[in-house]
Amino acid sequence: MAFKTEKVEDVEIIIPLSEIDAINGNEIRDHISKLKNVSGVIINFDRVIYLNSSGLRELIQSLKYLKDNHIPFALCNLSENIHKIFSNTNLNKLFNIFKNEKDAIKFIKEEYTI
User: Fold this and answer.
1) What range(s) does the STAS domain occupy (predicted)?
2) Where are the domains of the chain?
């Protein structure tokens, strides 16, 4: 598996281990689609060194699924280069992006409930 998961209270945290591309992004999206009883999902980019357009597409599909199911979604710990990808494509306006995991959890807990 190209990612690991953690749970903080009822928030699912997905930590990709190196990159998000078509294959890894699809695995993440499949994992998200099977989640039950979570108050939110965070993808922690702390270890992500590479993100391509296929990976972005998978993240957008995950966002759509979560929005359709009223589950908040946040990204955190983006490197400067990956943050530029989101800014240059205006996806920073679509995703909730936070500096760190603590802020992302706080957002989910303060803004949303099950």
Assistant:
1) 1-108
2) 3-111
C-alpha dihedral, 89 to 43 to 3 to 88, nearest 10°: 10
**13-50 residue pLDDT tens:** 999 999 999 999 999 999 999 999 999 999 999 999 99
Tokens of 44: 């922690």
CA distance 18 to 52: 12
Within the chain, strands assigned E span 3-8, 11-16, 19-20, 40-44, 50-51, 73-76, 96-98
Q: What angle do CA 73, 88, 6 make, to 5 degrees?
A: 25
pLDDT tens digits for 82-108? 999 999 999 999 999 999 999 999 999
Is it the case that residue 114 has pLDDT exceeding 60?
no
